[in-house]
Amino acid sequence: xxxxxxxxxxxxxxxxxxxxxxxxxxxxxxxxxxxxxxxxxxxxxxxxxxxxxxxxxxxxxxxxxxxxxxxxxxxxxxxxxxxxxxxxxxxxxxxxxxxxxxxxxxxxxxxxxxxxxxxxxxxxxxxxxxxxxxxxxxxxxxxxxxxxxxxxxxxxxxxxxxxxxxxxxxxxxxxxxxxxxxxxxxxxxxxxxxxxxxxxxxxxxxxxxxxxxxxxxxxxxxxxxxxxxxxxxxxxxxxxxxxxxxxxxxxxxxxxxxxxxxxxxxxxxxxxxxxxxxxxxxxxxxxxxxxx
Amino acid sequence: xxxxxxxxxxxxxxxxxxxxxxxxxxxxxxxxxxxxxxxxxxxxxxxxxxxxxxxxxxxxxxxxxxxxxxxxxxxxxxxxxxxxxxxxxxxxxxxxxxxxxxxxxxxxxxxxxxxxxxxxxxxxxxxxxxxxxxxxxxxxxxxxxxxxxxxxxxxxxxxxxxxxxxxxxxxxxxxxxxxxxxxxxxxxxxxxxxxxxxxxxxxxxxxxxxxxxxxxxxxxxxxxxxxxxxxxxxxxxxxxxxxxxxxxxxxxxxxxxxxxxxxxxxxxxxxxxxxxxxxxxxxxxxxxxxxxxxxxxxxxxxxxxxxxxxxxxxxxxxxxxxxxxxxxxxxxxxxxxxxxxxxxxxxxxxxxxxxxxxxxxxxxxxxxx
Lengths: 292, 369
Hints:
The complex is a heterodimer of chains A (about 290) and B (about 375).
Chain A: H1 2-21, E1 29-38, E2 41-51, E3 56-61, H2 67-74, E4 82-87, E5 90-91, H3 97-104, E6 107-110, H4 122-133, H5 139-152, H6 169-180, E7 187-191, H7 199-216, E8 219-223, H8 227-233, E9 236-241, E10 244-249, H9 251-255, H10 260-267, H11 269-291
Parallel strand pairs in A: 3-8, 3-9, 6-7, 7-8
Antiparallel strand pairs in A: 1-2, 1-4, 4-5, 9-10
Helix pairs in contact in A: 4-5, 4-6, 5-6, 7-8, 8-11
Chain B: E1 6-12, E2 15-24, H1 30-38, E3 45-47, E4 51-54, H2 56-69, E5 72-74, H3 78-89, H4 103-141, H5 148-159, H6 163-185, H7 194-232, H8 235-242, H9 246-285, H10 289-299, H11 302-328, H12 334-365
Helix pairs in contact in B: 2-3, 4-9, 5-9, 6-7, 6-9, 7-9, 7-10, 7-11, 7-12, 9-10, 9-11, 11-12
C-alpha cells in the first residue's frame, strides 16, 4: 500500500514536470518559413501561419495550391524541405518517437475520403486509436466510448456495427470524424469534410463541426472549397496563393484586401449566394432568440 | 509518466460521497474506470470539486457511474456539466459488431453458408464461362473491335517475362529427375533409361504442369488482383458506362494470352528440362551431352509432345478463367482483393492437377500411353 503511495507520488511529480513543460500559449499550430517541393515543383515557399486556440480556421486556395500538402506537413506525413512546424509548441519535424506520439494523441485527422479501415466496423475503427494509445483502458470502457462517439458524430446508433462499405458517403465522413475524435483531441484537422455531400448533409455536417468545436473546446484546421462552410462556421480564413498564406482574417477583413485571387474567390456569384444564405440564417437565429 | 485519476470515499452522516481527484482524461482514467466498476457499496454523491481537467471520456465515466448508483454529481465546473450533459444525451447501448451466433450454431451456420456459396459459385462460374464464350463469338463477328494492343501486352506479361523463371525452374527439375532417376535405375544396370525417363516426363507431364503452376502463380494472381482493384476503384463500372465491355477489354485479352502462351511456355519448359537432364547426365553418368539429345529423338514417341501440347492451352484457359472470374467477384473492400487472388491461384492449381489426372487416363485409353 505504502509502495503504491510512493509510486503515485513519483508519478505525480513527473507529471508536474510535464505540466511545466507543457505548452500553454495561444497558438496550437505555428508554421514558419515552410518550404515544400516535389522535384522541381515548389509548392510552398516561406509559408508562415499561426492558428489560434479555440478557433475554426478555414483554409482555402485554388486546386493544386497545396492545402492538403500543408496539412500533411503539419501532421508529419510530409517532411518539408525547410522551415519549422510547431504543434503545441513542439517541433514536429525530427521529433523523438515518444514525443511525437504524445503530440499525435492530441490531434485527430479526418481525411478526404474518410480513410476508415475497411475490414473493421465503425465502432472498431473508433477503438483503434484508443487501443493504440491507451492499452490500459478496459474493453468495456472502449466499447462504451465508441458507442457514444458514434452518436456524438450524428450517426444513428446501429451504425456502430456496420462496415464502412455499408455506409453512405456522408455517414462515412461522420464515422471518420468519430474516429478523429476518439482520443478527445484538442486539435482537429478536417480535409474537405463537406466535399461530395448534398447541401443538406453539408449544412448538417457544418453545424455538427461547430457544435462539437464549441462543446469540446476544439481548435479546428479546416480545408474546404465550400463557401457555405466558410461563411457559416469559420472564425477566420487563411488564403493560400502564390505558394504562401497571403492573408488570414475574417471574411469581411479579407474582402477589404485587393488581392486578385481573394477578390475573385469571394466576389464571385457563388460567394454572394453563400453570404446571403448565411446572413438570412443568422437573422432567423437572432429572431428565434429574441422570441425565446 | 502520466498522472492517473483516482478517488477517495468519504462517509458523512450515513451518506457516501466519492471525491474524484486528478485529471479525468482519456489518458489518465484507465485505472479509475476499473476501480469504479468494482465499487460495490452504494454512493449518494460524486464530488468533482477536486478533479482536474475533464474530457468526454471522464464525463462519460462520471455520468455512467452516477446513473448506475442513482448518485448526484456535485461540484462540477461548467465545462464538466456541459460535457456530462453531452455524453448523457448520446448514450447508446447498440451493438458494436455484427451479431454473432453461439459457437455450436455458428459452425453449422458457417457450413451451411459455405455450401450455399459454393453452389452459387458454381452457377456464377458457369455463367461467367458462358459470358466468355459469347464474348468470343462476338469477337469472331467483329474482329476489328478486339483490343489487339492489350492482347500483345498480355503476351508480353504472361509469356515473355515468364521465360527466365521458367527456364531456371525447368532446368533444375530436369537435373533432379535425371539424377534421381539414374540413382534408381542404376540398381538394375539400366542407367541408359534415364534418357527415356527425363525425355518422356518432361514433354508429356512436367513441362506443361510446372509451367501451368508457375503461370497460375505469376499471371493468374495478377489477373485477379488487377481486375479486382479495378472493380474496387469503379474502373470496371466506368468502362461499362462508356460502352466498353470489360469482357472484351479486360478478360478476353488475358484469356487468349494465357491460352496461346501456355503451349509455347510448356514446350520451352520441356526443352529446358531435357537440357538440364542432359547436363547432369554428362557430368555424373558419363553420357555425352549430344548423345543424350540425339537419343531423345529415338526414345520419346512423337505423341508425347502432342499430349503435352494438347493439355497446355486447356491449362492456360483454366488459369486465366479462374484469375479473371475471381477478380470480377471482388466487392466491397481491399481485403477481398487479397482473398480472391489467393482463391484464384488455389483453384487454378487444383483444377489443373485434377484435369491432368483425367488427361493421363484419357490418353492412355486412346493408345498414347
